[in-house]
Amino acid sequence: MNKIFEIPLYPYTRSPDQDADRPVRRKVVIVGAGPIGLAAAIDLARQGVEAIVLDDNDKVSFGSRAICFAKRPLEILDRLGCGRPMVDKGVQWNVGKVFFDERKVFEFNLLPEEGHRRPAFINLQQYYFEEYLVERARELEADGAPIELRGGNTVTSVQQHVDHVSLEIETPDGPYTLEADWLIACDGAGSPIRAMMGLDFVGRVFEDNFLIADVVMEADFPTERWFWFDPPFNRGQSALLHKQPDGVWRIDLQLGWDIDKEEEKKPENVIPRLKQMLGDEVEFDLEWVSIYTFQCRRMEKFRHGRVLFAGDSAHQVSPFGARGANSGLQDTDNLVWKLKMVIDGTAPETLLDSYDAERVQGADENILNSSRSTDFITPKSEMSRIFRDAVLDLAEHHELARPLVNSGRLSVPCVHDGSPLNGNDALPGGPSRARPGAPCPDAPVGDGFLLDELGDRFILVTFGTDAPDALSESGVIARRLALHTGDDPSGALQERYLGDASTAVYLVRPDQHVVARWPRYDEGETRAAIRRAIGLE
Hints:
Layout: E1 24-31, H1 35-46, E2 51-55, E3 68-70, H2 71-80, H3 83-89, E4 91-93, E5 95-100, E6 103-109, E7 121-123, H4 126-142, E8 147-151, E9 154-160, E10 165-171, E11 174-185, H5 192-196, E12 201-217, E13 225-229, E14 238-243, E15 248-254, H6 261-264, H7 267-278, E16 284-299, E17 303-304, E18 307-309, E19 315-316, H8 324-344, H9 351-377, H10 382-395, E20 444-445, E21 448-449, H11 450-454, E22 459-463, E23 470-473, E24 476-483, H12 492-498, E25 504-508, E26 514-518, H13 523-533
Parallel strand pairs: 1-2, 1-11, 2-8, 5-13, 11-18, 22-24
Antiparallel strand pairs: 3-7, 4-7, 5-6, 9-10, 10-11, 12-15, 12-16, 13-14, 14-15, 16-19, 17-18, 20-21, 22-25, 23-24, 25-26
């Protein structure tokens, strides 16, 4: 068993707030020191916004849990300063294979093009991810950034007021009260904060269960995602295999609905299932076992006054497609720059309503894709099963059937079409992948990559046309990044940003989503787009 589970990374220590004569007011309090809460705190602190993280635990999560981290979240983590250790430790992969019975019927490559800094996916145990995030938080704290992790702090009550939130907190030394200008709830699928506020999810719970087993073994399987429909070792069900670091392999086995979960988790029942899949000759050790039930649900709203929900506390999807932690990181990436602008007085509080609008859209997109995957993987009628099996048979030899194969539509970033923050799309022939609302696609620039040049600020990217070095509007300074297609001999910049155009100007917001684009710079248009992007129009 990995000893990291047993090491307190943020042990309880008494805070001066517990000895204050009256409740101390903090800028932002985050409940939950999982990946989403830690990412939010790091993002805030590195921008100078005070972030206090409360958690009833004091160590990383038990078990590998979320393991698949997609390209877009890795790009976000690069900006937070912890993308490199993730990629260095993780197992990189782009290729997935789908089997029906024992036949390979389909293969896909999630990143077939060159010119990206990060791979389509890495596999990495969640406990490593949390450890790297805690280390990054400690680095920031040592450098004087306003971040604090408080383990052994259990929130027992939440009360909203006009200009703050009051929290009652239980500790080993007894209770205390803390106030926050803003509260971010990242306390997981069973969110106590959500329950305290009398809020709930809407959506579907699917009648099926899957066994997750992390096994330590020496195996020569390639570094790919393998998914089986109706395999000989799990007839009538499905299975999934992923490679992780340290010789750990993730195996998911479909069990069906009417099972005794506690019985199925016992090693004496798990091991024979795994031997049936791997063969009696393969030696392995169990590291972690769990059983999950498909759920595709979300809160109706992610913003409730001064309480903002992110990650699993706001939405849940089935694991197929790796949309849980990946979408949670996109939640905080969307939220933090807006919250900073509100705190700084640059933007009105109503800007936070766009967090709700955009990330509810993202959750709905994830839920739709996840539900469709679940329906394909676990047909609910005999006719649905006949259709699925026919698609799998056809896919082996006919390309037209392969888009219908759905073993989990893997996580991609949401394009916020129709966002209230989007400006004009006035670039004739501009590529759809870089339209307003879309995250900027990466591309080579000189010896590096474009996303590193963009950073996390408002920026005006010009391609082969002129513009001022900086433009100040309503408290926002948009600085210019001047590029030419010659900066990238591969042609990726042209293909990903100009398309049929010869020149272009892009306004990009701090989370690297496109606000607006034009063939050339226009000061009035640019000022209007900046005001719109911060909720002033």
